[in-house]
Automatic annotation (TrEMBL):
Pfam families listed in its UniProt record: Cupin_8 (PF13621)
Alphabetized UniProt keyword annotations: Iron, Metal-binding, Oxidoreductase
Cofactor(s) demanded: Fe(2+)
One biological process term in Gene Ontology: positive regulation of translational termination
Organism: Prunus dulcis
Residue ranges of domain JmjC in the record: 126-298
Family under the similarity heading: Belongs to the JARID1 histone demethylase family.
Gene Ontology molecular-function annotations: 2-oxoglutarate-dependent dioxygenase activity; catalytic activity, acting on a protein; metal ion binding; sequence-specific DNA binding
Protein name, entry field: JmjC domain-containing protein
GO cellular component, one term: cytoplasm
PROSITE patterns on file: JMJC
Alphabetized InterPro entries for the sequence: Cupin_8, JmjC_dom, JMJD6_ArgDemeth/LysHydrox
């Protein structure tokens, strides 16, 4: 069965694009784009690539060979993904180069694998080698709440669910991928329905994209089973809508970065031996996608165990635990995440008002950005409240006064401040000054008015209303309207 190509992904010189233009044309409209000209000074482009443009595999084996990584066997399906193997980078390089490990007295089942079928994926390179500085995240992708948060907190802290090796509840969503020509990634939409960006350090990839408006066409009638490989013969009886799909195509060259918006299903093939750097991320512009996925997965988790509801002492709690295990967080995790980000954004506004001390500071790009962030969070909290009214609250609690004493929260605020200063090309953070101001904020009226306790979505909504009213007046209402 062939697929219908309806167009190509736009390519734009990233050096000629402003941050505001990127937001308006791609992030806000949730449209994919390929950006060029943004990788010229990356260390990875020097160290990881040979003079003839091939992956410098010996460099990886020499410098990072002991790292344990997940490697997908592209020839073997396991449930909805490819079978995963664990090996060291050195072992993976041996397989790729066709250097049998038996010669080194280290025979392994991996040695029987063809290099064509093995694809190193989801290597947390930045977490493992933070001093190496392989690349600099382009400014378009720096407003990354997910990774900024995970650098300081776990998304879910249940010891029965979280582990360092858990693929979903992981330490960050910054990855390195390495695969030979012919390796591929099955059809999927990204984790949390996040944005993602993928930079080709070397090699070439073919991407096939399906718009969110057509995603229902690749599922069965119950929206449970999805296409695995769009180039396989699809069962038209089971997935009848597939013949109606229209795809966007892109060939991503070396030193090009592709922006993948939320909810766009895609399949990727390595046309050459390839190394790429990939981030998943979300912020105020796609927060609703995260919530929509959480709600959908919650309803599925609830439906799956509905038959034991009458005999379960804590049915809702079980639903939330299953949601966290399957999706990577539950309602309470998401609310705590939103509450911490709300407080961090409020601190930025407080800093701006203290720093500028005039009547026009709230019209600055940073202030408008922060206000939009809070409006987005408030809108999601309102949506959560409508569900929480039915399900109740299960363990959500955050004390803002205690949070302000948390050194991890201070680090989160620091990075957030530096990020918006860079995005809007303004100096927006002085650590020594802000450290003192955070101490002062423990006695601020807005926190006292909220009793410093956030225990449900209503508390968070009230905090945002009071916080923004203190600085921005009616602007929050304008931003909420913009989000509708």
């Amino acid at each position: 069965m062939g697929i219908k190509i309806g167009g190509q992904i736009e390519k734009v010189n990233g050096k000629e694009l402003s941050y505001d233009e990127f937001v308006e044309r791609y992030m806000e409209k949730n449209q994919p784009v390929v950006l060029t000209g943004l990788m010229d000074d990356w260390r990875a482009c020097r160290d990881w690539v040979t003079d003839n443009g091939q992956p410098n595999l010996q460099f990886f084996a020499t410098h990072f060979g002991k790292s344990k990584v997940q490697v997908a066997d592209c020839g073997t399906r396991e449930f909805t993904d490819q079978k995963r193997l664990e090996m060291t980078v050195a072992e993976f390089v041996e397989q790729w180069l066709g250097d049998p490990m038996q010669e080194h007295g280290n025979a392994s089942s991996h040695s029987a694998m063809s290099k064509m079928s093995l694809y190193l994926k989801d290597w947390h390179f930045v977490k493992e080698y933070p001093e190496y500085e392989a690349y600099t995240t382009p400014v378009f992708f720096c407003d990354d709440w997910l990774n900024i948060y995970l650098d300081n907190y776990h998304m879910h802290n249940d010891p029965n669910i979280y582990s360092e090796n858990n693929e979903i509840s992981c330490s960050d969503y910054r990855f390195v991928y390495m695969g030979a020509k012919g390796t591929w990634t099955p059809f999927h939409a990204d984790v949390f329905r996040s944005y993602s960006w993928s930079a080709n350090v070397c090699g070439k990839k073919r991407w096939l994209f399906l718009s969110p408006s057509q995603s229902h066409l690749v599922f069965d009638r119950n929206m449970k089973s999805c296409v695995y490989n769009i180039f396989d013969e699809v069962n038209e009886t089971k997935i009848s809508g597939f013949v109606e799909t229209i795809w966007l195509e892109c060939t991503q060259e070396q030193n090009e970065i592709i922006f993948v918006p939320s909810g766009w299903y895609h399949q990727v093939l390595n046309l050459e031996d390839t190394i790429s750097i990939n981030h998943n991320w979300f912020n105020a512009y796609n927060l609703r996608w995260v919530w929509d996925l959480l709600l959908r997965d919650y309803n599925e988790a609830k439906e799956y165990i509905e038959d034991i509801k009458d005999v379960c002492d804590d049915f809702e709690g079980l639903c939330q635990r299953n949601l966290a295990a399957n999706t990577g967080m539950n309602f309470n995790d998401f609310l705590i995440f939103l509450a911490r980000l709300s407080l961090a954004n409020y601190i930025q506004l407080h800093y701006l008002s203290r720093k500028n001390g005039n009547h026009t500071w709230n019209l600055s790009p940073i202030a408008q950005h922060l206000t939009f962030n809070l409006a987005s969070i408030q809108k999601i909290a309102l949506n959560i409240k409508s569900v929480e009214d039915l399900t109740g609250s299960h363990g959500f609690h955050l004390d803002f006064r205690e949070t302000l004493k948390d050194p991890n929260f201070f680090k989160l605020c620091t990075i957030l401040g530096k990020t918006y200063g860079m995005v809007h090309m303004q100096q927006n953070w002085n650590s020594a000054t802000k450290n003192a101001w955070i101490d002062d904020m423990r006695d601020l009226d807005v926190i006292g008015t909220c009793s410093s306790q956030v225990c449900n979505p209503e508390d968070l909504i009230k905090f945002i209303e009071l916080a923004v009213a203190e600085f921005m007046g009616v602007r929050i209402a304008e931003d909420v309207s913009r989000l509708k």
